[in-house]
Amino acid sequence: MPSIDELEAYAHENHVPIMMKTGIEFILELIRNQAYTRILELGTAIGYSAIRMARISPLIQIDTLENDPERAQVAMKNIAAEHLESQIRLHVMDIAEFQTDQQYDLIFVDAAKAQYPHYMQQFRANLAEGGVFVFDNLNFHGMVEDPSLTENKGTKQMIKKLRRFRETLMTDPNCLTQFYPEVGDGVAVVGLLRK
């Protein structure tokens, strides 16, 4: 059974992006405080955050999506080693193809950054009353504030989209957004006003 330290070490050694420590602690605290039990995670990677969330309570049920078959295989192994298969359902598929009528207390988004607005649109009907979206990496290693930190054209485009998305979250009257720039790599908690 891999320890949390081992999962973190594996992610570091294999360049697998997982939530920063302050970010994961923040989200676990949110789940505990709000007693959230139904969670959708977009971006499983190696199963690190799903495992951490499921460990909080046996009542927690998680649907998690990963489109990279190799990473999904590692995640399945890690989930099985923790005996959490009854709590975590891993869907190996493109997020855009996932359809469900399930209502979730928490929709945790940590997948393709440029797609954040689409994911929010796609799953807003799946957010339960009183539930929230949580978006990670809204600072993107400081590059959203300071685009000169990268020369990569693709990254610059993605940063522009992230900045626009961040601005939308803060100004859309239908979004109740709390942005925590100092948590992890920039985390937003977003509730939706029902029309």
TrEMBL record:
Keywords from the UniProt entry: Methyltransferase, S-adenosyl-L-methionine, Transferase
Superkingdom assignment: Bacteria
InterPro entries registered for this protein in UniProt: SAM-dependent_MTases_sf, SAM_O-MeTrfase
KW Glycosyltransferase (keyword) present: no
Gene Ontology molecular function, alphabetical: O-methyltransferase activity
Keyword Transferase attributed: yes
One Gene Ontology term from the biological process aspect of the record: methylation
CDD domains attached to this UniProt entry: AdoMet_MTases
Protein name: Methyltransferase domain-containing protein
Organism, scientific name: Holdemania massiliensis
Origin organism lineage: Bacteria, Bacillati, Bacillota, Erysipelotrichia, Erysipelotrichales
